[in-house]
Amino acid sequence: MKNSGMNGGGENLFKAISSDTRLSILEILSEGDKHISGLAREIGISVPVAAKHVKVLEKAKLVERKKFGNTHMIGIKLNNVYSFLDHFAENRRLEVEEGTSLLEALKSVTAVEVRKMGDRVKVVATDGEEGFYVYEVDGKFSDKTVDEYTFYEDTIVEWKKLIPITKKRLFVNIKR
Questions:
Q1: Among 10, 118, 164, 169, which one has the highest count of C-beta atoms within 10 angstroms of its own C-beta?
Q2: Mean pLDDT, to the nearest integer, of 95-109?
Q3: Residue 147 and residue 122: Cα distance in Å, rounded?
């Protein structure tokens, strides 16, 4: 893997994810920031051992330390985790005629199930995997549906299945 500076380089990254304990730490932190002693307690290891594992994760830029006075909270850097995983996305090259729709291009490389919802066509499954899908063209979201978007120049399309990740949860109560 090319060392782009992201995630502290491949060596640090692979060292960071090569430990079940560090993977457990990342899993726990995906639920929210934790104090180092809380991490140690949840995993069943000592605080000094947890601190050593956190240092490895920090070096790989997968977690960050947030200081509040004398208290240090550890938080996961989800964007860096996702950036790392993007390196392993399936890549395909294809050639299409000018004016080909994204939907037709998708159908040429994968099994796509579409459903008409109102006046829009939505992809509801790719290769049998149901979900909500979005796409970016050259790093930007489009306001067109997959059947409306047509190609007139060379481009890069990133096809993404949205996986529910709760950033904020609101419990809304109506005043009565």
A1: 10
A2: 91
A3: 9
- For the domain made up of 13-83, give the CATH fold: Arc Repressor Mutant, subunit A (1.10.10)
Residues 146-155: tens digit of each pLDDT: 889 999 999 9
Please determine, for residue 3, whether its predicted confidence score (pLDDT) is greater than 50.
no
List, in sequence order, every residue forming a beta bridge with 132; answer none if it has no partner: 162
- The amino acid at 7: N
CA atoms within a 13 Å half-sphere pointing along the CA-CB vector of 133: 25
The arrangement of strands across the sheet holding 112-117 comes to 112-117, 120-126, 129-130
The total of other beta-carbon atoms located within 10 Å of residue 115's CB is: 10
* Residue 72 DSSP label: E
Per the CB < 8 A criterion, the answer to whether 23 and 43 are in contact is: no
| H or E segment to which residue 122 belongs | strand 120-126
pLDDT at 18: 92
All CATH 1.10.10.10 domain ranges in the chain, comma separated? 13-83
Contact 121, 112 (CB under 8 A): no
Q: What span, in angstroms and rounded, lies between the C-alpha atoms of 174 and 106?
A: 45
d(Cα 30, Cα 95) in Å, to the nearest integer?
Answer: 39
Nearest CA-CA partner of 145 in 100, 102, 113: 102
C-alpha to C-alpha distance for 120 and 156, rounded to whole angstroms: 23
